Every structure is written in structure tokens, then in C-alpha cells.
Amino acid sequence: MPQYYKRKTEIGHPTEGRIVAALDAIASGLTLLKAADDFGISKSALQRYQAKQAKQKNDASALSKIPLAPHYQHAQIFSAIQEQE
């Protein structure tokens, strides 16, 4: 493996724009499975983001604060400084 690994594909890493578009499509009546297939997002990830959105639906200002990116810090071994070394 090279010293600086670069991903070859972006499969499995949906962008924030695709997630928002898929959530909007679900809100307009598209099924979860169809939206997941159309936007290239896994069903379970889209369901998780939809649950976050439904939980904070009462607070309109909180909707913009929902993190729509993968969160890998729970499995992080090295700090950001150690990764840069």
C-alpha cells in the first residue's frame, strides 16, 4: 500500500447534496427504497438520516444542524495531528 492512500472510488460515500435531494424526494412521496436506488445511497443510511430529520421536525432551526456526512470519529484511532505526521 502506498504511503498516502487515495480512494479509487466514491462508492458508499454519498454527498450531502444527494442526501438532501433524496430526503426531499421522500418528503414529496417517493418511497424510501426507490429514493435509495435512484440517488445511489444505501437504504439503511437513508433511513437513518430520515429518522434524524423526523426526530427534529418540530424545531425548524434544528433541521439545518443535522449532520449529513458520515461520522467515523467513534472508530478513530489516531488524532488529526497524529494522522498528519
Structure description:
The chain has five helices and no strands. With 85 residues, it is mainly α. The protein has a domain at 16-69. Helix 1 runs antiparallel to helix 2 (32-39). The longest helix has 13 residues, at 43-55. The model has no long low-confidence stretch (mean pLDDT 80). One of its GO terms (molecular function) is DNA binding. Residues 15-49 form the HTH psq-type domain. This is HTH psq-type domain-containing protein. InterPro entries: HTH_Psq.
List the helices and strands and how they pair.
Elements: H1 16-27, H2 32-39, H3 43-55, H4 60-63, H5 80-84
Radius of gyration: 16 Å
Estimated structural class: mainly alpha
* Quantity of strands, as a count: 0
Task: Please mark out the parts with pLDDT under 50 across 5 or more consecutive residues, or reply none.
Answer: none
**N to C succession of SSEs:** HHHHH
Question: What gap, in angstroms, lies between the N and C termini?
Answer: 17 Å
Note the overall shape: globular
Could you estimate the helical fraction of the residues in percent? 40-55%
Largest sheet: none
Strand content: under 5%
Count up the helices: 5
What is the average of the pLDDT values? 80
